[in-house]
Amino acid sequence: MTKFQKQMLTIAAAGALTAVTALPAMAFESQFNGSFLVKSYLGNWDRGTGSSAVPTADKTKTNNVTDQRARLTYTGKASDDLKLVVQLEMNTRWGNSATGGGTNTSGMGGGIDTDGLNVATRWAYLDFNMGKSFNMKVGQQPYKDALKGLLIDADLPMALATYKAGAYQLRLGYSRFNESIQASGLTGNSFSGDTASDLYLIENSYSINKGTKVGLAYYLNVDNNKDTGVGGPVKGQDKKVNTLGLSYETQMGNLNLSGMAAMQMGYQKNLTAAPGTNFHGWAANTVAKMKVGTGLARAGFLFTSGNNRDDNAHYYGWQSVSASGNYATAGQNSYTDSGMMLLVRNQSMGGTNTDGYFRKPITNIALAHMGYDANLTEKLYLNGNVGFAWLPASDYLNTNGGVARVVARNASDFAGTELNLETGYKLYKNMTLKAQAAYWMLGSAFKNTATKTNGTAADPANPWTMRLAAQYTF
Rounded CA gap, 182 and 195, in Å? Predict the structure, then answer.
């Protein structure tokens, strides 16, 4: 073999080895991204619990809470038509020295040595296409309904199918998000799936033209997981809530308009002498956004019905999804367009598990809001918002997220006015420093609803909060 032949053989072998080792990289792509947020709160509103709250004290103390949240997302991409998405979340409240026995939402690991079981699997789902028009997402995944998130905006174990045909899109979904496993076996009367909470959905949308889209959606929440806490689940107290909604969005020059209207109908059986419960909920919304100057002007209105009845025969409050026979008491729905920090759950102004709101979940509130997002420079922005809130079920303050009713005639149904500001400076391309402040001037709905130490009635103190945050995304 000549020297030239040896050189050519060596080059060919090296090329073959390079091609073989490069095959996995070409066939499979791994992507990592995520975010980190640390936030410190100062005020009489934030308590570090993240639950709903109602002002009840005439004199309040100033709280200070600091927490952080890290999210890591992995995408295993086999092709443009097949990928696996996994997201992990770590929440920590500084000073929470618990190391176990809780959940990710409790913010453990905030003590010395920062040990804590605070890692949660937020997403783990397959995303794949079947042809050019059909997509499937199966597994734990983020989901927001077509009603601005007012029914549900949460992570769910879910199967979601999307079909597109020209200007028409159809989404079909199913989720089981609560279940009491029955172990009675083949000879028993109970079985897996017998006492479960399920969600079924059909979402239709049609693009009339490039700037206008309309939608029709139907949701069925079947909750057979009623549990009295004594003797396990109670058979026969099945609950079914149907939600039917219309939505629209249109773009006219610099003006964007969007909105929705929805109604709920349902029934829950009752084994006692009391009658079953009929459900009649309502929700509506409209929002206008327009580019003005260097920023964006926003204005909108939200209505979600409340319940003002003492009996169980009818319930008129708007509900997010139900589990264990309860009207939802957790942060399962949201309203991002509001720009509020205190009145209604708004994930764009929050970011961690300790953010508390007057309406969480969002029910029994009418809210008129407006705001302006100003881009002062390429790195500096300033957002301002004002919101006016009323209680549709004005006979009750509806504490605990609108579920536990306080039977008290209010001076009026006006809940008050929230003013808030947020400013941010982009220190680096992927890092922003933020400052937030909000003040809620309580309305006459809260007049004389607090009690002084001597037992006399008083007006509650106005809630307020100030927050500093640093956010990094990659």
Answer: 8
Mean pLDDT, range 340-365, rounded to an integer: 85
Residue 252 falls inside a structural domain: yes
Local confidence band at 353 (pLDDT 50, 70, 90 cut-offs)? confident
Classify residue 8: in a domain, yes or no: no
Hey, what are 393's tokens? 């079920």
| 8-state DSSP, 313 | S
Per-residue confidence (pLDDT) for residue 403, from 0 to 100? 46
**How far is 422 from 436, CA to CA, in rounded Å?**
4
Give residue 148's domain range.
27-473
Quote the CA–CA distance of 396 and 408 in Å, as a whole number.
6
Q: Which residue is it, tokens 């200070």? A: 64
pLDDT tens-digit readout, 368-382: 999 999 999 999 999
Side-chain-side CA neighbours of residue 142 (13 Å): 7
pLDDT (0 to 100) of residue 266: 94
Q: Tell me: pLDDT of 147 over 90.
A: yes
Pick the range with the lowest mean pLDDT from 41-50, 183-192, 295-304, 414-423.
183-192
Those residues whose C-beta lies under 8 Å from the C-beta of residue 15, and which sit 6 or more positions away, are none
Dist CA 39 CA 31 (whole Å): 27
Stronger pLDDT, 452 or 146, i.e. the higher one: 146
Q: Which residues touch 38 (CB under 8 Å, ≥6 apart)? A: 66, 67, 68, 469, 470
Q: Mean pLDDT for the chain? A: 85
Residue 318: how many CA atoms within 13 Å on its side-chain side? 31
Helix (H) and strand (E) counts for the chain? 2, 21
- Considering its fold, how many domains does the chain have in total? 1
Alpha-carbon gap, residue 314 to 393, rounded angstroms = 14
C-alpha separations of 109 from 49, 106, 139, 467 in Å: 15, 10, 28, 22
Query: For position 387, which CATH number holds?
Result: 2.40.160.100
The values of phi and psi at residue 108, to 5°, are -75, 170
Pairing assessment for the beta strands 314-315 and 277-292 based on DSSP bridges: parallel
Check residue 228 and give its pLDDT. Answer: 45
Is the backbone peptide bond immediately before 142 cis, with ω within 30 degrees of 0? no
Residues 373-415: tens digit of each pLDDT:
999 999 999 999 999 999 998 765 554 444 455 555 566 899 9
> Is residue 453 a part of any domain in this protein?
yes
pTM for the complete prediction?
Answer: 0.88
Can you tell me the distance from the alpha carbon of 126 to that of 116, in angstroms, rounded to the nearest whole number? 29
Q: Which residues contact 89 (CB under 8 A, 6 or more apart)?
A: 69, 70, 71, 104, 119, 120, 122
Task: Give which of 440, 439, 438, 456 is closest to 448, Cα–Cα.
Answer: 456
The 3-state DSSP class for residue 58 equals: coil
Residue 382 included in any domain: yes
